[in-house]
Structure formats: structure tokens, C-alpha cells
Amino acid sequence: MRDIEVITIGESLVAFVPNAHTKLRYVQQFSKVVAGAESNVAVGLSKLGHSTGWMSKVGSDEFGQFIIRELRAEGVDTSHVLISDEGPSGIMFKQFSANLASQVFYYRKGSAASTLKVSDLDWEYLKQAKVLHLSGITPALSASCKDVVYELFSFAKQQGILISFDPNIRRKLWSEAEAKQVLAPLLVQADIVLMGEDEGELLLGSGDSHRIAAMLLRKGAKAVGIKRGGQGAYVADATASFDIPIYPVKVVDTIGAGDAFNAGFLAGILEGKPIKECGRMGSLMGALAVSSYGDTEGLPDRKAFDDMMQNEKEIER
Ligand code: KDG
């Protein structure tokens, strides 16, 4: 068995995606897909040919089986996912309004994943990773999930495993004050930081991507990707920094774009690409995510991805 390059840990949910751009009260039909910031990153990386694992807890129910089955089908190792009677699998609904803004509604309180605790982790399994990718959603789920994240940070430091961290502030899960208190100290310990420019003000006191990246690099980050939505991205490491433009696409659902960016960026890091290339890989993945309705369904396999990257380079010349 080859080692797993990236292991992600966090809750995945069954997401119900409406077939109409209207309030949920008027929606008659939904598609069922898997959502979850961390597993989205694992799926994106797996599609690009990298070995990934996702560790979590699902309920002992049909939705838990669905989540495992879908992730496994995308090539993500799910051998260490726990099936638990402590709570159900979490679910969420997306809502699309006429102006295309996406909203989410969670039904995840007391979910199986929220009962994840330090003693659930298999350290031997985690040891093989080059990168552990975590997000700020997990510590918002419960006190035991917060402990898990802190413990994973210390473990990765001891083992020389890179921590990739996306604060992913979810205001429906906790207050800004709580998010800041927990996430700000984690952010400055991560090796790879992938965050939204709009999260900088709360966590670092600046909403400017260049200043955010400079602060994080000073604190010890090795690579930083700041996501700026429709404005593109800004990426930086100790050697260079670049503004990365967006790839123009027809936007249908913005949810999942950040995770797709993370997957592309991390693929670049794993492949030893210069930081500009990592940013461009992230940006292309993000663009492909927003042009489809699920979080990961629009993501390409490696061949299609390489062709699109190549085309972009030729257009630029
Ligand atoms: O990043 C997209 C995620 O927000 C979505 O897939 C669901 O993980 C999720 C969450 O907690 O919001």
C-alpha cells in the first residue's frame, strides 16, 4: 500500500440541493450529494491523482453509508471512518435565490461527527500523511472536536507533518468572538494557510490579502493562499508572492469553491510547484467548482485539468 499523502479530518454531511432557485418552502425536488469542507478537499486532490484519506464519524444510518460510499467512489480512503450510535449523520440544505447567492441550512447539532474525540484518532494511521488538512469548522462543532483539532496540531508538529489549515468561519455554528478566540491561535501555527480575505479582519485585524499573507509568513507559515472570491487570489511564500486572476466561468453555485481552491493549491505543493503555479492550480479548481451545483461534482480528473492548465498558458503567451 502506498502512503496516503493527505489526510483530512472533519464532518461531512448529506447536502440536499434544490432543483429550483427559490425559497426552500417552494422547492419540490432535491438532489442528494455529499458536502463537507475537509472531504471536499480530499475529493479534489484525489481527482488530481493524489492519495487521500478522510477520517471522521458518521451515524449508523443510511446517510452515513451514503457519505462513505460516495467518498470511497471518488478514491478517498475511508478505512478509518467510524460508524457511531452516538448521533445521526448530519444533513444540510442549500438554497439558491434568484440572484444566485447560495445559502445553507444545517441539521447537524448532536451529529455523530460532533462526538469525535481524541481517543477516536488512530495515530498510526495519521502518521503516514505528508499533510494533515484541517478546517475551523471542526472546533465549532463541540468541545471534544475542538480538543481533536488542538491535539492534531501538536501531533503534526511532533511528527514533522505539515498542517494545512482553512479557518472556514461558519457564523451559523458559533459567534465571531468564539471563532476568533479559537481560530486565531491555530491560524498562526499552520504551515500552509488557506483562507478567505474576508476572514482576515476578524482573525488578524486586516482585510488586505497582502498584509494577511505577510503576517502569516512572519509567524512561520511556509505557504499562504488568500481567496478573494470574484477577485481571484493572492499567494505567497518566503520566495515570492503573486496576485492570481480568476478563470472566467458561468457561476451557478459558489459553495465549495474555497475547498476546490485548497485542493488545487495543495496538489501544487505536493508536486513541488512554485507558489504561482500552486495559486493557478487552486484558482482553476475553484472556477470549476462554482460552475457546477454540488461541491465537487464539477471538479476535473487529472487529464482534463492538465489540458485546461495548458490552454490557459497558451492563451497567456
Ligand atoms: O465549504 C463548503 C462547505 O461549507 C460545505 O460543503 C459544508 O462543510 C460544510 C460546512 O460545514 O459548512
Reconstruct the topology from this structure.
Elements: E1 6-9, E2 13-18, E3 30-35, H1 37-47, E4 52-55, E5 57-59, H2 62-73, E6 76-77, E7 82-84, E8 91-96, E9 102-107, H3 123-127, E10 131-135, H4 138-141, H5 143-159, E11 162-166, H6 176-187, E12 192-196, H7 197-204, H8 209-219, E13 223-227, E14 233-237, E15 241-244, H9 257-270, H10 275-290, H11 302-316
Parallel strand pairs: 1-4, 1-10, 2-8, 4-6, 5-7, 10-11, 11-12, 12-13
Antiparallel strand pairs: 2-3, 8-9, 13-14, 14-15
Bound molecules: 2-keto-3-deoxygluconate.
2-keto-3-deoxygluconate (KDG) is lined by residues 13, 35-37, 40, 104, 137, 170, 255-256, 258-259, 295.
What features would you describe in this structure?
This protein is an alpha/beta fold and 317 residues long. It is built from eleven helices and 15 strands. The chain has a domain at 6-11 and 37-55 and 123-309: UDP-N-acetylmuramoyl-L-alanine:D-glutamate ligase (3-Layer(aba) Sandwich). The strands form three sheets. Strands 6-4-1-10-11-12-13-14-15 form a nine-stranded mixed sheet, sandwiched between helices. The model has no long low-confidence stretch (mean pLDDT 95). The chain has helices spanning 37-47, 62-73, 123-127, 138-141, 143-159, 176-187, 197-204, 209-219, 257-270, 275-290, 302-316; strands at residues 6-9, 13-18, 30-35, 52-55, 57-59, 76-77, 82-84, 91-96, 102-107, 131-135, 162-166, 192-196, 223-227, 233-237, 241-244. It binds 2-keto-3-deoxygluconate. Residues 13, 35-37, 40, 104, 137, 170, 255-256, 258-259, 295 line the site of 2-keto-3-deoxygluconate.
